[in-house]
Amino acid sequence: MAAPAEPFWLHKSLAQLSPQEWESLCDGCGLCCLQKLEDEDDGSVYYTRIACKLLDLNTCQCSDYPRRRAHVPDCIALTAEQADQFKWLPPTCGYRLVAEGQDLPAWHHLVCGDRNEVHAQRISQAGRMLSETAVAEDDWEDHLIFRAG
User: Fold this and answer.
1) Residues 6 or more apart from 12 whose CB is under 8 A from it?
2) Under the phi-then-psi rule, with left for phi > 0, alpha for psi from -120 to 50, and beta for the rest, what region is 94?
3) Domain carrying residue 84
């Protein structure tokens, strides 16, 4: 009997990933869609629980992913070519983990087969976010949840 094939993210380089494989690394946590604040003194980046206006607050899915940049021009496209710039992503992020040569966690849908496990394990902020349309930008600092790094 043949040994099970090693998962693609463990044996392919980022440059070898197909667009579908790259997109599948997204764990659906939505943390990249939270507003972040940068400390002007030391450059630290802090996540808030304030979500992009396009993010569904319960499912952590973008409500218009294909056209998101038409609505949010500064939406960042995460690409394999930029992987070395992902230090601001949370340490649980599938993109960041694979870019750093690490395996995906047990709760990741590519490992466990369940897209809801990211929410069950409370990795995402599902149900705990506020829309940027509901909070004045001057008040975002009152909603810090963790420091990137």
Assistant:
1) 21
2) alpha
3) 17-147
Its sign, for the CA torsion 139, 76, 126, 118, is: negative
- Kindly report the average pLDDT of the chain as a whole number: 92
**Claim: this prediction has a pTM higher than 0.85:** yes
What CA–CA distances, in Å, run from 64 to 7, 70, 72, 85? 30, 9, 10, 25
Count of domains for the chain: 1
Residue 4 counted as domain residue: no
In this prediction, residue 1 carries a pLDDT of: 58
Q: How many CB atoms lie within 10 A of CB 124?
A: 22
Query: Is residue 83's pLDDT more than 90?
Result: no
**CA atoms of 82 and 92, how far apart (whole Å):** 18
**Position 10 in a domain:** no
Instruction: Please tell me the distance from the alpha carbon of residue 25 to that of residue 67, in angstroms, as a whole number.
Output: 20
In the chain, the amino acid numbered 145 is I
